[in-house]
Write a structure and sequence with these properties.
Strand content: 15-25%
CATH superfamily of the largest domain: Globins
Bound molecules: flavin-adenine dinucleotide
Number of domains: 3
CATH class of the largest domain: Mainly Alpha
Length: 408
């Protein structure tokens, strides 16, 4: 239990630390990786380089500090981050290491302004915040491990089938190497893949949404190859998976995780919107919906650059032929001549509110969306402008957990 004095110090210093947030978290990661290079095997280096991880950490710590008297208020965020931590293999013993380096970074950046009283208050507050994460994550580890077919940490899976879905997206059908049971999952959840790339000194862990409906004797992930361009290096794991991993190869997977899941208790119409590779959790939800809730109206909206980058198009169109409750709409940013000749799309350019109002028959619906950041921002803005209540809007962001506030 924190004293009123400590709470007062925390609350009065949050704004100061917020101003220096990026400098502190940048310094924190430098110190952390110098002293504990083994943690480079867990954290995403690309997110570090682009500052996304720093922002996510700063947001999470400050949100927690602001609600230090009532951490229940931020439980959904703690759980969302907890899912990611559990899938990465972050354990209770990592928290003191993070705490020690975070305090050292605060001291380093703020200098004399960081008095002993302030540092002491933050040390106590960090302890309370860390305990909240540790207890949520302990429960998640237990659940992941004890469910039928479950496991903790990473398990070997064999690539049974590799299927090209578009010019940039490839699906991998994965079965347990031990031939044991597969843990169940909710449509919308993801797994973490730990890649041991021969040319790399560290392992790299990335999340991939399960792109098929639950209930199959395999997990399927669908990976977009992140090409390099100019100063932007090629994506490490996506390129390795797409180019070097084939049928018969073994990958290390975490048990399914994530809180972006389809509410199957809901019977109202549902609208699934995706941009690019953001379609993966949507395909899992779509297949589940037509199989398990055939009376539920589904609108599936997908934005791609053009037809050659549009994955799983034929699959959705075939599904709609057999399920009249499903309608689909394609929006191409830059259609090719071939797309035009074939009338392969419904809208050219970007998804906007007036088009959504034309294709969604009933505004009162549950909305799920996923895609690149500009797509997410545009959809979020459009739905809010239309007056869709916040509780009907659900999304997944393919970046560090805790950084979502940046677009809401
Ligand atoms: P990284 O090496 O991690 O690089 C990522 C990007 O950063 C690249 O575009 C790279 O060019 C850029 N970059 C790297 N270093 C720098 C630098 N120094 N300066 C500027 N730019 C840089 N992806 C899918 O394909 N399918 C999915 O179903 C999917 N589901 C996901 C679900 C969740 C919950 C999350 C969080 C992510 C998901 N992702 C998915 C994204 C996936 O986890 C990876 O982020 C993605 O595959 C890129 O990883 P990478 O190792 O190839 O690229």
């Amino acid at each position: 239990m924190l004293s009123q004095k400590t709470i007062q110090v925390i609350k009065s210093t949050v704004p100061v630390l917020e101003v220096h947030g990026t400098a502190i978290t940048k310094r924190f990661y430098e110190m952390l990786f110098t002293k504990h290079p083994e943690l480079l095997n867990i954290f995403n280096h690309a997110n570090q380089k682009q500052g996304r991880q720093q922002t996510a950490l700063a947001n999470a710590v400050y949100a927690a500090a602001l609600h230090i008297e009532n951490l229940e208020a931020i439980l959904p965020v703690v759980k969302q981050i907890g899912h990611k931590h559990r899938s990465l293999g972050i354990k209770a013993e990592h928290y003191p290491i993070v705490g020690e380096n975070l305090l050292a970074a605060i001291k380093d950046v703020l200098g004399d302004a960081a008095t002993d009283e302030i540092i002491q208050a933050w040390a106590e507050a960090y302890g309370v915040i860390a305990d909240a994460f540790i207890s949520v994550e302990a429960e998640m580890y237990e659940q992941a491990c004890e469910q039928p077919g479950g496991w903790s940490d990473f398990r070997e899976f064999v690539v049974q089938r590799k299927v090209v879905e578009s010019d940039v997206i490839t699906s991998f059908y994965l079965v347990p190497a031990d031939k044991g049971l597969l843990a169940a999952y909710e449509p919308g959840q993801y797994v973490s893949v730990k890649a041991d790339i021969p040319s790399e000194s560290n392992t790299h862990i990335r999340q991939y949404s399960l792109s098929d409906a639950p209930g199959n004797p395999y997990y399927r992930i669908s990976v977009k190859r992140e090409e390099g361009m100019g100063d932007k290096p090629a994506g490490k794991v996506s390129v390795y998976l797409s180019e070097c991993i084939g049928e018969g190869d073994v990958l290390l997977l975490s048990a399914p995780a994530g809180d972006f899941t389809l509410n199957q208790e809901d019977s109202r119409p549902v609208v699934l919107l995706s941009g690019g590779v953001g379609l993966t959790p949507m395909i899992s939800m779509l297949t589940t919906l037509v199989n398990s809730q055939p009376a539920r109206t589904v609108t599936f909206i997908h934005a791609a650059q053009n037809g050659s980058l549009h994955a799983m198009k034929a699959y959705v169109e075939e599904l709609a032929r057999n399920h009249p409750q499903l309608s689909y709409y394609w929006c191409y940013e830059k259609p090719t001549d071939r797309d035009r000749e074939q009338h392969a799309f419904h809208k050219e350019g970007y998804v906007d509110l007036s088009w959504l109002q034309q294709v969604i028959s009933k505004k009162e619906a549950s909305y799920y969306f996923c895609g690149p950041l500009p797509f997410m921002k545009a959809i979020n803005r459009a739905l809010k402008e239309w007056g869709v209540p916040a509780e009907d809007i659900h999304y997944e962001f393919f970046g560090p957990a805790g950084s979502l506030e940046s677009f809401s």
